[in-house]
Write a structure and sequence with these properties.
alpha+beta, 4-stranded antiparallel sheet, 4 helices, 4 strands, membrane, transmembrane helix, DUF4878 domain-containing protein, transmembrane
């Protein structure tokens, strides 16, 4: 008799319910794993869909425009174009100190001409309007709690040698404005 002894037919196999295998035979497939409950599949699908929706919302929304001086200047220009003074006040650092003339509700289309570089949490923006082509609005912007807000708004003549420049009490804030 050879060193390998074969099992008799009445000896049990390695696994219950499995047919006896000849000696030296190696099983080529693994047994099937237990099926995953449909509850786990549903929960995984819900988590995957929620992650996809959050990622899409983050990509579409983008960063907050108030995180930059240029973004805040654009928001101010839009609020003046729409004559929405409540929005404008929300962009002001201390709305109780800044007087808003009634003429600002009739500025027409307002756009950002240029914004200075942001240094030490301070920037200056120049806004132009369609209804007052001889005047610019110069915004002094300040970074507060990682958001930019308006500190001062100055009416500046578009050209400092214009006749309207002599009637303004403080032209010095207008001299170094960006874009002019």
């Amino acid at each position: 008799m050879s060193p390998k002894a074969s099992r008799s037919a009445d000896e049990p196999g390695d696994e219950p319910g499995q047919a006896d295998l000849p000696p030296g035979y190696v099983r080529m497939s693994r047994p099937k794993p237990a099926p995953v409950s449909w509850w786990w599949k549903s929960a995984g699908l819900v988590v995957l869909l929620a992650a996809a929706v959050i990622a899409i919302m983050f990509i579409v929304k983008g960063p907050d425009p108030r995180e930059s001086a240029r973004g805040t200047a654009k928001l101010v220009a839009e609020s003046l174009t729409d004559a929405d003074m409540s929005d404008f006040r929300s962009y002001v650092c201390d709305s109780g100190k800044l007087e808003i003339p009634d003429a600002w509700t009739q500025m027409g289309s307002t756009s950002v001409l240029d914004v200075s570089s942001e240094r030490d949490g301070v920037a200056t923006a120049t806004l132009t309007t369609t209804k007052r082509p001889d005047m610019d609005l110069v915004l002094l912007l300040h970074s507060k709690d990682e958001q930019w807000c308006v500190v001062v708004v100055t009416n500046c003549p578009r050209y400092l040698d214009a006749p309207s420049a002599s009637s303004l009490p403080d032209v010095k804030g207008c001299r170094g404005r960006p874009g002019r």
